Structures are given as structure tokens and as C-alpha cells.
Amino acid sequence: MNASTPDTIDPAEAAHFGAMAADWWNPKGSSAMLHRLNPVRLRYIRGAVDGHWHGDPAGLKPLAGRRVLDVGCGAGLLAEPLARLGASVTAIDAAPENIAVARAHAEGQGLAIDYRVGGVEEMDEVDAFDLVTSLEVIEHVADPAAFVAELARRLAPGGLMVLSTPNRTPMSRLALIAVGESVGGIPKGTHDWHKFLTPEELAGLVEAAGLRVADVTGLSFGPGRGFHLSDNKAMDYLLTAVPAAAAE
Predict the structure, then answer these.
(1) Predicted structure pTM score
(2) Which residues contact 1 (CB under 8 A, 6 or more apart)?
(3) What is the spatial distance between Cα 248 and Cα 27, in angstroms, rounded to a whole number?
(4) Count of CB atoms situated within 10 Å of the CB of 141
(5) Helix (H), strand (E) at residue 84
(6) What pLDDT, in 10s, does the model give residues 218-241?
């Protein structure tokens, strides 16, 4: 590990999610909400990728020839579809239990994904990726500013970063903790509301890391629609960023 770089991993958080590893791919288990979120998150990423690289929205492999890094990958719920979209995927997680499950599941699907245990700050300095993703992760790290800076360092020139995280609002406290961790199927202790970042706070960290925010879109829930993208950022949101030089 680079001794000059702060360690972004929170051991307690890694242990919490590692304990859920065996159940990660069960759509009705402890990660049920992530399974419901995944199609919406993928739709957003696909739109961001097509817009950034001027791809064909009907194309089946929009990430062909692209290197992708997924940080805080869990057992691979996002890494696997990114690989199916044609990407060469590297995925890392702090919990070795998650990586073991991810590797076994990917092998069963015939997918070649480079899974690694550890923090993003431990990666080789020469690693650079066209797309960097980290979804529902930053609220669990020890140092959000250092974490975003490390993500930005892995982004290749002309690359794209996609992050998602809950907003720190009364709505998120109600939906994700009061309801979600009592009757919503989210394991108790998964979230600390005080660690949630507002869009303005996350944008500030992204800009401090030398990137430019390209888009912020809300992720909402409705009884008739389920999870969907919206202008309402009160519960959760997705953010895309590009190197600041791309604005020039």
C-alpha cells in the first residue's frame, strides 16, 4: 500500500458486507434492494456511456474495447453486466468473502472479470480506466475525499466516472433506515445517515479531485413504478463526472 495515501477502507463496513456475501446473488435475500436498483442504475450508465462516447443506443456492446473499474463491487451485481456490455472489467472490494463469491459466480456465467481484494489506493499507479464506477459505496468509506481522489487518479484521459449514493435528507432517513432496515429487507446497521452526502457535497469532492460534474440525476421510488430515474434527488442520486480538461 502507498504509505502516503490515506486508507479509505472502513474495516467494520467491510466486515458487515462480507457477512452478506453468500446471500448476495439471492434476489429475495439481504441484497434484494440492490437487485431492484440494478436495472435502473444500468440504464443510467448505458445512457451516460452512449452520450459520452457517441455510441449507438441500440448497440449490444457499447463498452467493447473499454477498460472499466468497479470499486466496491460486492459479489459482482454491476461488474457482470458491464462485462456483458463488452468491457474488460476490473472489480475490487474490501471484503475477501465478496470477491470469493464474485469469482465463483462469474466463472459459472462464463465471464472473465479481474476480481481483486483491497482498496482502490492499493492499485498499481499505472492502471487507468475508461470508465470508473462506484455505486452505493462512498457512504461506507473511511475518508470520502481521499476515496474520490483515488477514483479520479484511476480515470484515463477522456474517461467517465459514475457514482451513486443516498442523499442526506429526512426522506432518505425514513426510506432507507426507518423503513428499509426494519421492514424493507435491508440488514440493520447497513446505513449511517450522518455519512450520507448531499449532491453539493459530493460535487465538491469530485471537483477537488480535478473532475467536472457532467450530470446529477435522482433515483426515486414510487408504488406504481418502483425505482426509476427522476429529477427528485431526495432519496438517492447518480452523478457522472469527466476530467476537468474535457470542459475546455
Answers:
(1) 0.91
(2) 7, 119, 121, 122
(3) 44
(4) 25
(5) helix 79-84
(6) 999 888 888 899 999 999 999 999
Closest among 184, 160, 130, 198 to 45, alpha carbons compared = 160
For the annotated binding site, the residues are 41, 72, 93, 135
In this predicted structure, what is the pLDDT of residue 246? 55
Give residue for cell 434484494. Answer: 32
Closest CA to 196 of 136, 133, 121, 238: 136
Task: Answer whether residue 141 shows pLDDT above 50.
Answer: yes
User: What is the pLDDT at residue 5?
Assistant: 40
Residue 9 has pLDDT above 70, yes or no: yes
Which ranges constitute the DSSP H helices of 8-69?
11-18, 32-53
Nearest to 200 by CA among 169, 161, 157: 169
pLDDT digits (tens, 9 = 90+) for 88-105: 999 999 999 999 999 999
Residues 6 or more apart in contact with residue 188 via CB below 8 angstroms: 181, 182
Cell of 178: 426507518
Answer yes or no: are the C-beta atoms of 95 and 15 closer than 8 Å. yes
List the CATH code of the domain at 11-247.
3.40.50.150
Residue ranges per domain, the chain?
Answer: 11-247
Annotated binding site for S-adenosyl-L-methionine: 41, 72, 93, 135
DSSP labels for 205-232?
HHHHTTEEEEEEEEEEEETTTEEEEES-
For 166-198, the DSSP string reads E--SHHHIIIIIIITTTTSSPPTTS--GGG---
